[in-house]
Write a structure and sequence with these properties.
By secondary structure, this protein is an alpha/beta fold. It has helices at residues 31-43, 69-78, 95-104, 119-135, 152-158, 197-202, 218-230, 239-248, and strands spanning 18-26, 50-53, 82-86, 142-144, 164-166, 170-172, 181-182, 205-210, 235-236. It is globular.
């Protein structure tokens, strides 16, 4: 697979460096925070985002307790944002149980919602989440596993249901499966103050992961704003656009 959108253009070609901002863990309880982040991003020149929606937070379909969230997401999508599915419930398991399943599945993320599920359970969870978003008129373009915790069964099931899915350092499509295409790791509130300005300038694609509570950390906000200022010449893209370009160039 030759995903040219992920590569720097050849010598003499127009430089088309990009920035892609993803907002994680979108649910009714944090609607106001997410809307505030999007307004802040617009002030930073970020024209579109990838919005990761939890279909059934607290085991309740998102459209049953949306309090305006579903309508807002539809407006964002009409304005160019990409809506994607974030797991099913993104429920945090008891620490000991979670760690045991995490290590048994060979996963790096202790937030792995799909650790310990067999293939049939994985398919049912994915189908339920997608159906919830479909009924809310929020048909998801792609998928992200909570904490980027993927299993072999999850990769296999995603290929039949989504156009793309993202792991920590790979972009996956039905044609690539679990192999995927190399991607840069994302800048987040956890690593923003260690991020190299030179790395941000040289990367053809700059990934940024944000979460609802990130604006509570004023130092992280300052660091993100400096990063966005350095990236002001980049074209803003969603992962829907990146996934589509990867599929075309396959």
């Amino acid at each position: 697979m030759n995903a040219t959108i992920l590569q720097r253009p050849s010598v003499g070609a127009e430089r088309r460096d990009q920035i892609s901002v993803t907002i994680h863990d979108i649910r009714p309880q944090c609607f106001e925070r997410v809307a505030l982040i999007c307004d802040w991003l617009a002030d930073q020149g970020i024209e579109r985002t990838t919005l990761l929606v939890v279909p059934a937070p607290d085991l309740h379909p998102v459209n049953h307790r949306s309090d305006g969230l579903v309508e807002w997401l539809s407006e964002q999508r009409n304005a160019g944002a990409c809506v994607a599915q974030l797991g099913l419930c993104n429920v945090d398991r008891p620490r000991q149980s979670r760690a045991r399943l995490w290590h048994r599945a060979g996963l790096r993320s202790s937030a792995a919602e799909f650790a310990g599920l067999d293939p049939a359970e994985t398919r049912r969870a994915l189908t339920a989440g997608r159906r919830i978003l479909h009924l809310a008129d929020l048909e998801p373009e792609g998928f992200v596993a909570p904490g980027y915790g993927y299993t072999a069964a999850l990769h296999q099931s995603l290929a039949a249901r989504f156009k793309w899915w993202i792991s920590e350092s790979r972009l996956h499509t039905p044609l690539t499966g679990a192999r995927g295409v190399a991607m840069p790791r994302a800048v987040s509130a956890k690593n923003i103050r260690r991020w190299s300005a030179r790395a941000a300038q040289e990367a053809p694609l700059l990934r940024v992961d944000l979460r609802p509570n990130d604006l509570d950390d004023s130092r992280a906000v300052d660091s993100f704003e400096r990063l966005f200022d350095r990236a002001c010449e980049r074209r803003t893209v969603s992962f829907g656009e990146i996934g589509e370009a990867a599929a075309i160039s396959a």
